[in-house]
Amino acid sequence: MSSAAHVDALRPAFASYFKMVSDGVPEAAQIKRLCDELKEASHVLVSELLTQWDTDNNRTLCFPDEILALCFCFLPFRDRVLASHVSRRWRTVSLTRPAIWAYIDFDVSFRNQAELFRMALERTGAHPIDVFNCPHLDQGFVVEQSLVHHMHHIRTLQYDKALYTAPLLSPAPRLETLACEIIPLDIRADFLGGVVGQLTTLRFCTVSFPTKCPALSTVTKLSLRGPQYAHYARNLGLSFQLFPVLQSLHLSDLKHSFSTDLPAGLVPASLRSLHLHTSDPDYDLTQLYAGWRSNDLSSVEICHNAVLSRHYVHLVDAPLTLYVRRESESATSVVTGVGPGSRCRRLEYWEEADDQRVLAAQLVELKSALANVHAISVPATSLGPLLGVFAILPRLTRLTWAALAPLASLPVHRPDLPSIVLKVACDGRTCAPAAQDARGLLAQLEGFAHAKLPDIIVDGFAPAVLRGVPPPEFPGFRIAFRDGPASMRA
Question: How far apart are CA 479 and CA 453, in angstroms?
């Protein structure tokens, strides 16, 4: 309805009511006061009608408090604070549901961060709390005091800009994860009250350990940066005793100067995942792994700035698949052995020239440990040096690489290979391989069409691209696209 239509509809009612209340009023001043009262009463009535309509039609008002509280839990911290001031009902829900404030993340700047942090912790009651990006130091120590007061029900505590040590001396029976990957930490024997709790994950940049610490005995995941100073290397050799149930160990930025301070002997029997990293030149971490080697380890990753050495033998553990990759920008090569089961061994090592004859020689020497390899993936530049490796792999049935030049010489080394996979990708382009790329690939294969090769499977082209690219019939081998048509031998 238009504004004029509303006026026409309301005019008779207003005129009738005005005539009734103004009847017998002799003075204009009284009439003006009467009109003001009438306007105010009209505004109140319209507001009440609008409120009632909103109540009858607003679906959010139909939500049970439990559903509304669940919605609040998914809001960022700032929005949860704002939502608690929208209405009386929303505020009541916010203040009576501790789970709404159980996830606290100060990943963005706030005014009065310390007071907001204290307020949020107080609203959690006894509910487990996960704190991420803990606020920085404040002059009144409000953040530190709040943490001390609530450590008994904090489950996750991640420091970012500041490290508060006082809370870490308080008992924390529910604490499962503690992280601060920027600031070093001195752990004392009375860490977390000096009692055994539920701590399972510890991630820190650098830590100094005491000789004994009951609170560390439950840690299963440990991630540390190697010591940069002698103070933090102290007692590092006791790590395996301090963490007897360790399942995952991640040590990064290890320094050769502190190699003798690392633990020696057998790793905990519970250890399943090991990651070692260093940037120090010529620091061979495979030698360190040789002393830690365990048949119970399912995943081992070593990244060092050293050439391939004889200690690589300790990383070869009867794999089923081998992957060789070259990182030209960082002058490194990566060798990964996968299987059996979930077992994985990965080594990233320095190699200035793109020449993997040393790797090939190492693999040939380890032929007994590679007897079960049935698949291998290598870069094109490594295919030549590694051709001799294929000959010592009796169960090899699958070979993958990224270029075609050495393809014709493959039957000399492995005449029994049943198939070859060519994976096609667009290097440096966001688009997918096109029909023109498929024709170019087939043109290269045509260069040795008479070579007696295994079946070639081409992977990487979309079905729609292949509709206009029928694979040719070559005398020496058969070509099949993974999602498209296949050719027949001529």
Answer: 10
pLDDT score at 189: 94
Encoding tokens for residue 67? 């559903």
Three-class secondary structure of residue 363 per DSSP = helix
The answer to whether 168 and 186 have CB atoms below 8 angstroms apart is no
**173-221 pLDDT per residue, tens:** 999 999 988 888 899 999 999 999 999 999 998 899 999 999 999 999 9
Q: Which two tokens stand for residue 206?
A: 């650098």
Q: How far is CA 300 from CA 168, 170, 259, 269, in A?
A: 32, 36, 19, 15
- Tell me which of 412 and 354 has the higher pLDDT: 412
In the numeric block, the tokens 């306007």 are attached to: 39
Mean pLDDT, range 305-328, rounded to an integer = 85
Whether residues 344 and 394 fall in one domain: yes
Q: How many CB atoms lie within 10 A of CB 329?
A: 5
Residue 324 falls within a domain, yes or no? yes
Residue 102 falls inside a structural domain: no
User: Would you say 360 and 386 are in contact if contact means Cβ atoms under 8 Å apart?
Assistant: yes
Give a yes or no: residue 478 inside a domain. Answer: yes
Determine if residue 221 is left, alpha or beta; phi over 0 gives left, psi from -120 to 50 gives alpha, anything else beta.
Answer: beta
Identity of residue 271 = L
Structural tokens at position 212: 């004994």
Structural domain containing residue 433: 418-490
Query: Which residues are CB-neighbours of 55 under 8 A, at least 6 positions away?
Result: 61
Closest residue by Cα to residue 251 from 217, 228, 231? 228
Tell me if 377 is assigned to some domain: yes
Residues 443 and 366 reside in one and the same domain:
no
Total number of domains constituting the chain? 2
